[in-house]
Write a structure and sequence with these properties.
Layout: H1 5-15, E1 24-30, H2 39-63, E2 67-72, H3 83-100, H4 104-109, H5 114-126, E3 134-137, H6 147-154, E4 158-161, H7 178-192, E5 197-201, E6 207-211, E7 218-220, E8 230-232, E9 237-240, E10 248-255, E11 260-270, E12 273-278, H8 283-293, E13 300-306, H9 317-320, E14 327-332, E15 346-351, E16 355-359, E17 365-370, E18 373-374
Parallel strand pairs: 1-2, 1-3, 3-4, 4-8
Antiparallel strand pairs: 5-6, 5-16, 6-10, 7-9, 9-13, 10-11, 11-12, 13-14, 14-15, 16-17, 17-18
Length: 376
């Protein structure tokens, strides 16, 4: 019995609710030759890949199904995974149908039309039994905000996304009371859904006015047991896609996805998109490159509020955004949870000690986070 067997059993049985005879696919990615991660991040990514392979092996031995696939890392979170993963997931029938329908390349490029997406869903639904029932995405870059993930879930797959995961998290933020976390998250979602606007203020100067009008908040509670559901692991957040073109304010970034920034970056948001960046931190060049690639990457895509009381580390955005009492704001793609902006990019930024105020349709206000403390 390996040191992770207990964690794997909890993953498959508690989080994913595996049933007898269900098929499992676990995938990961490899460091590309043109990447240059620092020593610590390289070590984490190598351990992530090895742990994903172990998880697939465990599923195969314990539950009778455990396919493993890995591939060179994509350029960023939100980029479609390579065709080899599509083929391993969807099988010959679906892939042939998408190819013959002239849809596949547009799905890869994230420029598919609504009509094409409807047809793609029909093709997938016609071969739904070919798609694994459980998909564990242990790649460094997130595939949550991709056509690949959405179509897999349309086929009924239960999809757990663990981007930037560190296997050490099995002993911390994954070792949480999932029932209590789910109840806490549900209460917060209900509160947020009473609002039309959400105001956020942080001691670092962040001040955002975020439009929720017409959008439904959801909860990521780690219990991925319904057909077609997906979420992050470790879990613990209430989130929504702000109404495009309305939000405004200032985001002061102190942390990137895997490190504390050398200097803060200030992003000015107007009409729901980044219109200006101030600061000399190297991360600025990375963001500007994404914005040059697609203007849709400027979109304010998400507001999330952390609810996981076992999450604590700020240097890994996957766990940081789940820390109880934090909020995170994302840029880029939001089509996977109620938005309408498709982009080859989705990146979250975490903010500490926020005060979050809900603004109701009648103008009344309710503080749900006060300087980082979740209110009753």
């Amino acid at each position: 019995m390996s040191s992770l067997d207990h964690a794997f059993r909890s993953l498959f049985e508690t989080n994913m609710g595996i049933a007898p005879g269900e098929t499992v696919l676990v995938f990961s990615d490899r460091i590309r030759q043109d990447e240059a991660p620092d020593e610590g991040d390289r070590d984490r990514r190598l351990r992530l890949n090895a742990t994903a392979r172990q998880a697939a092996d465990f599923a195969g031995i314990t539950y009778g199904s455990g396919q493993f696939v890995d591939f060179p890392a994509t350029a960023a979170s939100g980029v479609e995974p390579p065709q080899m993963l599509w083929e391993a997931t969807f099988g010959r029938g679906i892939m042939s149908g998408l190819q013959q329908g002239g849809i596949l390349d547009d799905l890869f490029d994230k420029c598919v039309t609504p009509e094409q997406l409807t047809r793609a869903r029909e093709i997938v639904a016609g071969h739904a039994d070919d798609v694994p029932r459980i998909i564990i995405a242990m790649s460094n870059n997130s595939s949550s905000h991709t056509n690949y993930r959405k179509l897999a879930c349309h086929a009924g797959a239960r999809f757990a996304s663990l981007p930037h995961f560190d296997p050490d998290m099995f002993g911390t933020s994954m070792n949480v009371d999932w029932t209590t976390l789910a109840e806490r998250t549900a209460r917060l979602v209900a509160a947020v859904n009473r609002a039309e606007w959400v105001n956020v203020e942080c001691p670092n100067g962040t001040a955002m006015h975020i439009c929720k009008r017409g959008r439904d908040a959801g909860g990521d509670d780690g219990l991925l047991t319904r057909p077609g559901c997906f979420g992050n692991l470790p879990a613990g957040e209430a989130y929504f896609a702000p109404l495009e073109g309305e939000s405004h304010g200032v985001m002061v970034l102190e942390w990137g996805p895997t490190r504390k920034l050398e200097q803060t970056l200030t992003l000015t948001i107007a009409d729901g998109r980044v219109v200006r960046i101030d600061g000399d931190e190297p991360h600025r060049q990375r963001l500007e490159a994404r914005f040059a690639e697609s203007d849709a990457c400027r979109n304010l895509a998400e507001l999330g509020i952390g609810t996981n009381d076992k999450a604590s580390r700020p240097d890994n955005v996957l766990e940081a955004e789940k820390i109880m009492g934090t909020i995170h704001l994302a840029l880029g793609d939001n089509t996977g949870f109620g938005g309408v902006v498709a982009a080859p990019f989705h990146e979250d930024y975490v903010f500490y000690q926020p005060t979050v105020t809900l603004i109701m349709a009648d103008g009344s206000e309710e503080i749900i986070l006060d300087n980082g403390k979740l209110m009753p």
